[in-house]
Amino acid sequence: MSSEEENNSPIISARNLSVSYGSQEAVHAINLDFPRNKIVAIIGPSGCGKSTLIRCFNRMNDLVPSAKVTGEVIYNGQNIYAPNVDAVHVRRQIGMVFQKPNPFPKSIYENIAFGAKVNNYQGNMDELVEKSLRQAALWDEVKDDLTKNGLALPGGQQQRLCIARALATEPEVILMDEPASALDPIATLKIEELMQELKEQYTIIIVTHNMQQASRVSDLTAFISLDRTRVNDRVGVLVEYDLTQKIFIKPTEKETEDYISGRFG
Predict the structure, then answer these.
(1) pLDDT, average across residues 99-117
(2) CA 45, CA 223: separation in Å to the nearest integer?
(3) What is the pTM of this model?
């Protein structure tokens, strides 16, 4: 693939992607393309499988014994669920930031350096730590006390530390599962501003319940909802996927409009 073709092709594509926990299907037959250097928001009512879906994109569902994934997730042209693909390598390339900040009970410095050490990073560790913290807009706030325990930081700084930790493994894609839901409005704004800066270098996929946040930060929005034809099951299906402006101003599907306007969900 030429560099021009690569730039125009999706960095991640879900193809007929379904996930079950035991006998219960959670998401069904999802088809989505994620372009490079964009922010894609995934919205939808609670329990429709949004978190389950993005956990497919770096094989986090592998860690759930009852989970079964079918279909394909194509990352840079390769199905990450192919038998010869190393899930740990996938997670280096596709980082994840969770809903609740989860720094390691280590120093700020060690939080950043840990993943690099595990991956046998051969470069200058001090430079990597500084670069990652700068990218996460945290360096100026913590540079004078890198030995401080990451758990001692306020919630907003903890979340940016977790983002810096994800960036330190030099991924191409960052998955964010409700990254600001536990934060106050000021810390939330910092995370949103940071996302805009990061998309210059990374592709970001964010799950959010906050409609205002989705409309502010994302370039495209996917609306996942419960399959209305399966009244006895809670199965997530893709209803609509388009440019964020279109989804929020003139969606194609009435169900999308009803959800965004607060008539259900």
Answers:
(1) 93
(2) 9
(3) 0.92
